[in-house]
Amino acid sequence: MLKRLASALALVAAPALAADLPSVKAPPAPPPLLTTYNWTGLYAGLDLGGVWGSAKFSTPGFATTQDGDSVLGGAFIGYNRQYGAFVVGLEGDVQGLGADKTSAGLRFRQNLLASVNGRVGYAFDRVLIYAIGGVAFTDSRFDIGATRVDGEETGYDVGGGVEYAFLPNWTVRAEYRYYDFGKTNRTITTGGAAFPTPWSVTKTDNTFRAGVAYKFSEPDSAPVVAKY
């Protein structure tokens, strides 16, 4: 009888004793690590696109603008340095094209574009949005009647684009740029005129291109702890 009474008391007291014991919880799981792409490094690539050129011919009492377009393609090389989410760099490129437009005895031709530019961008991990601009060069040639006029070969370019790192060492980009080579002034004799006539030609270009690049540095990524 006493044994049965003791067993019953033990069954009743066991839940109460268990409730008084300190609870043991599993340690929290560590926060996940996010990987931020590192844009620092030397890179080189190829691009292809189009150019829309414009040459404005003017002389006293007369002005006309000729527009010509062409396929554009070439190569570029540069170096980026990343500071937090900001990316700065230097890039040079050479582009071949074949713009050629003739109208009313006036003609412009253009076979090359080149530039040395600075780049400033903001990185969203593998996506880089950037602005670009610097010194530009070209080999424009203008014909006014039978007279050849070589254009000013130095100007500037400005633009912007977006670049995406689809593999650790490979990126693709899309970019727009505007080129301005200023005004070329010449005094020439045309059309049997008795006296030389002043002429000026203003040359600009708009380009859009897509490219792919290889980054030579190691695909070093910086781990970032996610915060909640």
From TrEMBL:
InterPro entries: Beta-barrel_OMP, OMP-like, OMP/PagP_B-barrel. Residues 7-216 form the Outer membrane protein beta-barrel domain. Belongs to the Omp25/RopB family. One of its GO terms (cellular component) is cell outer membrane. This is Outer membrane immunogenic protein. Keywords: Cell outer membrane, Membrane, Signal. It is found in: Cell outer membrane. It comes from Rhodoblastus acidophilus (Rhodopseudomonas acidophila). Residues 1-18 form the signal peptide. Its main location: membrane. It holds the Pfam family OMP_b-brl.
